[in-house]
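Re: the multi-chain job from yesterday

Posting the exact lines I submitted so nobody has to dig through the queue logs.
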Amino acid sequence: MQLDSVHDIQKVYRELLQCMARPGKIADIRDSAAKADFVRECHPATFLVIQTLLDAEVTFHVLGERKDAIRRKIEDYTFAGHTSAEDADYIIAPAETGEPELLEAIRGCRAGTLENPHQSATWIIEAGALGGSSDWKLSGPGIRDEAEAPIALSEAFVRTRSMKTQEFPTGIDLIFTDGDGLISSIPRTTAITAKEESAWVM
Amino acid sequence: MKAEPQFAFLDEGSKKEIRRATLKAVAIPGYQVPFASREMPMARGWGTGGLQLTCSLVGKDDVLKVIDQGADESVNAVSIKKLIRATTGIPVTERTEEASLIQSRHRIPEVPLTKDQILVLQVPMPEPLRKYEKKESVTKRLHAESEYSGAWLMLFEQIMKYGRTTTGADHPVLVNGRYVMAPSPIPRFDNPKMDHSEALILLGAGREKKIYAVPPYTEIRSLAFEDHPFEGEDFSGKSCRFCGATGVFLDELYIQETGMTEHQCNDTSHCADRLGRQEEKEVQHATI
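And the result, structure tokens for all chains:
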């Protein structure tokens, strides 16, 4: 079946919104992702999130080895402008992105200002598989008591992300996608702490 | 040939822009995200912000409820329902439990909302600091610096003049310990319903071009002083003249014939629901 640019995108948006509102929640956009079978460059779920958010009014940046192919695909379908990681509204980290490259881009990307915290980068990160066990738990707005981190996160990643979000309201919001059509999110308000410690201090 | 209207009225580009702003709003609870605010077939100030949010959210599987000051049948609520129905074909309902999307003007329903529902509130004046600061550039800086002494001073002056805060509706709240936010003109009675709400709450101001949000399970504290704690409207000893409900928000009515004041439920669907159940009980237990 063909991907419906009105109804499939609306469904993806509603799931994405609930993910952003309930950090750690894993949402299923498999049915819509299955229709995006013309996408070979990245996960169909990644492509759907990009289709939901990007257009000519925003800019993006792609990391990783296959960045040129993905970039072309995004430009063809959304007309969004490609720019550097420091200036981009949306940064896409495909599955094979190396951690050093990822962390460097997180350190350098836009986090907004105190007056305009919304002028920050939103990350779309491809993960191996969502829903596995992790050493991290989440707390903050949108979470009753505590939630499980949706994916395994490295300590370096958590530390870099925490540095970027320590001065609320500035910070970055993360969207995770996987190859099975699952999505999840960790916005800037979420505190990520190690499971064994009650309060993780840097 | 008659052209089919676009699903949910707005073009996809406009929806995309509203959706981007909404996601940022959810990620920064209480912060007012600017958005382009499209022209709607309704005058600004009549809920165009809420309507645009609803249009960006609604899908084929939704069930919509629209309330205006607690009433499902008022002009504003009916015309919004008509527009959404005509452009999407989705069913509308008056029962809070049945709705997946609830757009409301100035009330949060009496029936507790669930995690599967989204509440959209219409906001005339999103800036809680506007009463004492006219310039947007200044209020933006005040928010950036968390400089809220003006908001506190406003309440302090009310207490000095009248012995209590006189906010009536739209009593400012502190979101997640960071942003002072206008909860839209809901009565003070409804403020506590926002605190650690199960449902996601989105607020849209069309004329002022702002979208902001309260995610679920987020701390919402109404501004108050230690020696002047926050109080909702008090209806103790009063009940609805139709369904007899207590502990709900009541409208006060002056009855000309008797010269007395009486009270009735403000949330009309909640009242009708209660009446229906009472009648059912009466019929079931009837003895002839």
